[in-house]
Amino acid sequence: MKLAARAIVGFTAAGLAAMMGMSTAQAAAGNYHIEVRTCDVKDAGTDSRVEARVNGSTTSSGWILLDNPGDDRERGRTDVYDKTLSDLGTISSIDIYFANNDDSPHWCLEEITIRRPDGVTTIHPFHNWLTRVYPKTSPLRINAA
Ligand SMILES: [Ca+2]
Ligand SMILES: [Ca+2]
């Protein structure tokens, strides 16, 4: 009896989602996991301020300060940021605001990976240096590969 009841509940939830026209993308609200990898080459690291904006098919996030406790963006390191965001839809690109400030500002960015709450992951490769300011009005845009 219990098993049958559970099966009916499961069927109803799926049916309801279908009726409402929901896709997996539209259900993807929650924790977005962002990994930022710095190149493993001389002077690759930076102490500059960095913010990111994630662009999706539904909407864009606000600007997110990428600053964990301790020293971010050291040579060869991957920094991980977990942010709760509303559903963005299919991720198309990430915009980077780069202040090019503080000690040894120039930064060699390898790539950024974004994992949605439903596990769908996009890779945004760059493999290049940031050696000037990228303002929020004209940020560095890195498309999904
Ligand atoms: Ca640093
Ligand atoms: Ca920090």
Which secondary structure elements does this structure contain, and how are they paired or packed?
Blueprint: H1 2-19, E1 30-38, E2 50-56, E3 64-65, E4 78-85, E5 91-98, E6 107-115, E7 121-130, E8 140-143
Antiparallel strand pairs: 1-4, 1-6, 2-3, 2-5, 5-8, 6-7
Signal peptide: 1-27
Keywords: Signal
Domain PLAT: 30-144
Q: Strand-and-helix sequence, N→C?
A: HEEEEEEEE
* Number of E-state strands: 8
The rough form would be described as globular
Give me the Rg, rounded: 19 Å
Largest sheet: 4 strands, antiparallel
Number of helices: 1
Overview in brief:
With 145 residues, the protein is mainly beta. 12% of the residues lie in helices and 39% in strands. It has 1 helix and 8 strands.
Task: Describe the model.
It contains 1 helix and 8 strands; from the N terminus they run H-E-E-E-E-E-E-E-E. The protein is mainly beta. The strands form 2 sheets. It has a 4-stranded antiparallel β-sheet, with no helix packed on it. Strands 3-2-5-8 form a 4-stranded antiparallel β-sheet, with no helix packed on it. The radius of gyration is 19 Å and the shape is globular. The N terminus is likely disordered. This is PLAT domain-containing protein. Keywords: Signal. Pfam families: PLAT.
